[in-house]
Amino acid sequence: MTRTRGPSGEWRHWPVLLASIAGIMLAAVNGYSLGVIMGPLEREFGWSRTEISMGPMIIAMMGLVGAPVAGIAIDRFGPRRIAAIGVVAFCGALALLSRAGPDIWSWWLHWALLGVASMLLVTTVWAAALNSLFSVHRGKALAFALCGTGLSAAVTPLATSALVTEYGWRGAYIGLAVIGGVIVFPLVLLFFRAARDTVVHDAAVEITGFDVREGLAAPSFRKLAAAVLLFAVSSIALTVNAVPVLDSQGFDTATAAWLAGLIGIGSIVGRLGGGFLLDRFDAKKVAAAAAVSPVVTALLLTLFPGSVGPVAVAALFLGLSAGTEVDACGYLAARHLGMRKFGTLFGMINGVVLFGSGAAPVAANYIYDVTGTYHLLLIAVVPVSLVAAMLFASLGRYPDWSADVAPASSGASVLPAGSSPSVAG
Predict the structure, then answer these.
(1) Per the domain annotation, does 413 fall within a domain?
(2) Which are the contacts of 388, defined by CB distance < 8 A and separation ≥ 6?
(3) 420 is a domain residue
(4) How much is the pLDDT for 333?
(5) Could you list the residue ranges that cross the membrane (predicted)?
(6) Are the C-beta atoms of residues 403 and 422 closer than 8 Å to each other?
(7) In this predicted structure, what is the pLDDT of residue 99?
(8) Count of domains observed in the chain
(9) What is the pTM of this model?
């Protein structure tokens, strides 16, 4: 049975959005809590910031292989099963971080365990379900769901700071894991579904797009992967290290955590606003504009160090960029690559994002350990962000997947895998 696509038809899937928001929020907790916990780790074990930041780098390296494998699993088993297992595994691994130390290898081993669990909660899981259920309002749906990262950026540093003050860094990791599991697992179990799990289908559910070989050969795939890698390097280096960067500029930890929380608020605004823009304008232009925003952040932090007003604006700009960019990446992947092998193809792109997200904090903190300042990092953000913007802007037109769908009367839903779509004008 095919149901007419429209606003009321698509938005009846709001419970999927709710579960996706919670899941994405949980998946970001380890990154946004690390900046607060970095200081206690330095004081207790004498580890350098570079050594501590190798934890996320381990996840990043695993992501190059793990995220594509997770994408293949999503295409085969559906995102619901992967997400449910992932929540349990992630919360368990997050709690186990409390057992790390005093040997740095213990820290890295626990992050490797967390990395395995993280592969089950990559963005591909949530985007695959939402892209299968939404078409007309796909940009807004992704925007609402990916607000989970912004909410995590706004809440996690403050919650972690409070938990560290009350229970120490070990208790903070256990507390974050318990809170996350109690809230997220029931939502995923009860509400998270993809099109393949539903009985009634929208027109948006028709599975069209490139197969894996065609997708990898498409210029849009390579440009998109390169653009999101550079964006991840420029923005995540600042986002994950926001508290340490602000500490180095003379802010106390509480003020730095509050200012870092503004990144989350900006991210939420950027996601919601970006979602509406993606549904109305050319997504590559929206993505290119967002990629330039970290330049503003870097300039404000360089020109006005230690000044609350300009730094607050810098944090908001960084959040706006991150919020819009992640939406645009999932949106552009669905439009340019289609849904036939979305899990596998977007999983590969997500692996690149994870690598960049892990490598950037290590590089940033290496710069700090060598120079005693993050000034060179702020300078490097400018050209990297501009190249990312140019790559987004150079993406071609969306393929016209309507040519890939057989008439309903034929009884077939898609053309053979080797068929090529026409290009929309």
Answers:
(1) no
(2) 227, 228, 230, 231, 234, 291
(3) no
(4) 83
(5) 12-32, 52-74, 81-101, 107-129, 141-160, 172-192, 224-243, 255-274, 286-305, 345-368, 374-393
(6) yes
(7) 93
(8) 1
(9) 0.65
Q: How high is the pLDDT of residue 187?
A: 92
Which residues form the domain of 144? 2-397
| Contacts within 8 Å (CB) and 24+ apart, 209-212 | 209/337, 209/338, 209/339, 209/340, 209/341, 209/342, 209/401, 209/404, 209/421, 210/337, 210/338, 210/340, 210/341, 210/345, 211/340, 211/341, 211/417, 211/418, 212/341, 212/344, 212/345
Place of tokens 């053979």: 416
- What pLDDT is attached to residue 261? 77
If we measure between CA atoms, which residue out of 353, 78, 329, 343 comes closest to residue 215? 343
CB atoms within 10 A of CB 102: 10
All residue ranges of the chain with pLDDT < 70 are 1-8, 194-207, 326, 401-425
The predicted structure's pLDDT at residue 89: 95
Residue 98 tokens, joined: 């409390």
HEC secondary structure over the chain: CEECCCHHHHHCCHHHHHHHHHHHHHHCHHHHHHHHHHHHHHHHHCCCHHHHHHHHHHHHHHHHHHHHHHHHHHHHHCHHHHHHHHHHHHHHHHHHHHHCCCCHHHHHHHHHHHHHHHHHHCHHHHHHHHHHHCCCCHHHHHHHHHHHHHHHHHHHHHHHHHHHHHHHHHHHHHHHHHHHHHHHHHHHHHHCCCHHHCCCEEHHHCCCECCHHHHHHCHHHHHHHHHHHHHHHHHHHHHHCHHHHHHHCCCCHHHHHHHHHHHHHHHHHHHHHHHHHHHHCCHHHHHHHHHHHHHHHHHHHHHCCCCHHHHHHHHHHHHHHHHHHHHHHHHHHHHHHECCCHHHHHHHHHHHHHHHHHHHHHHHHHHHHHHCCCHHHHHHHHHHHHHHHHHHHCCCCCEEHHHHCCCHHHCCCCCCCCCCCEECC
pLDDT score at 8: 52
Q: Note whether residue 214 is domain-resident.
A: yes
Cα first-last separation, the chain: 31
CATH label of the domain that carries residue 229: 1.20.1250.20
Dist CA 92 CA 174 (whole Å)? 9
* Residue 32 maps to a domain: yes
Give the whole-angstrom CA distance, residue 299 versus residue 294: 9
